[in-house]
């Protein structure tokens, strides 16, 4: 009987981790669509977003952060999530660390960049996972004309 309980607990944990992985891909799709409403819906009402522009708490501030970012950089992008490492932190929270790559095109230039996500995903609701926190660290953001040669990059 204990083996069955342990197996059931393991299965629940794996299912929650898969929901967290799926949320990362939902996020990439929503960002690619540039839908503020779709992105904000992926966050818990009290979630925290951290990026180079600051710390944003709650869905209204997070939505505003995306509006501001998209106004400053209007290129159409496609994001790709790579190598997500997931860990159940509790029955309700899954941590995930993942790399991302994006490519994009604007009216006058093509862009490329990459970086990392560090997220905490609330999986308490069996129907819907949401971000409790997300830290976005951009390691490189450039255009194809500038490129990313080692000698040309700052730092």
TrEMBL record:
SUPFAM superfamilies: NTF2-like (SSF54427). It holds the Pfam family SnoaL_4. Residues 12-126 form the SnoaL-like domain. This is Nuclear transport factor 2 family protein. It comes from Phytohabitans maris.
